[in-house]
């Protein structure tokens, strides 16, 4: 007898949820329709920038919007484009490495972000010493983990010894 009551109640709730979803979609559509004229107003404002900084910003924005539209979606074409960019970077890097010794003086005068490509990464040669656990030096640290069972046992033993000493007094 309870089940039909609950199922009827849940059916009512589902119908109410569907109705609310439809109402929300209708409200969203109204907002989208009302925002379209606002977008046109923004375009009119774009045509008449108030100062140079705003004009420069809008030009840069248009430039990147065009680049974003040109960018391919996921798929094999996008993978080919990425590999082409990688190959172009590799060739640019290899040419910068071969041209680096000649252009050292010119790199200081120009700021074209290509100077880092000509540098070769070098590491200081450090001899690898084998650490002996029995030898103490400045690089050796004592590791003490209170969760370790061995350390727990040691603590318990030391507590017993301390209790015995106190009992003897």
TrEMBL record:
The keyword Isomerase applies. One of its GO terms (molecular function) is isomerase activity. Keywords: Isomerase. Residues 1-48, 139-169 are annotated as: Disordered. Residues 8-48 have a biased composition (Basic and acidic residues). This is Peptidyl-prolyl cis-trans isomerase CWC27 homolog.
């Amino acid at each position: 007898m309870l089940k039909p009551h609950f199922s009827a109640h849940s059916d009512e709730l589902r119908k109410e949820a569907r109705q609310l979803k439809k109402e929300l979609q209708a409200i969203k559509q109204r907002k989208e329709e009302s925002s379209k004229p606002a977008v046109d107003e923004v375009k009119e404002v774009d045509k008449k920038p108030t100062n140079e900084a705003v004009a420069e910003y809008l030009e840069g924005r248009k430039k990147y919007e065009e680049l974003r539209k040109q960018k391919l979606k996921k798929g094999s074409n996008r993978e080919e484009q990425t590999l082409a960019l990688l190959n172009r970077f590799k060739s640019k890097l290899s040419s910068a490495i071969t041209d680096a010794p000649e252009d050292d003086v010119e790199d200081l005068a120009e700021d074209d972000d290509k100077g880092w490509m000509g540098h070769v990464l070098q590491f200081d040669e450090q001899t690898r010493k084998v650490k002996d656990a029995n030898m103490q030096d400045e690089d050796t640290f004592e590791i003490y983990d209170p969760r370790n069972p061995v350390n727990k046992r040691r603590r318990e033993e030391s507590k017993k010894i301390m209790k015995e000493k106190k009992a003897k007094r």
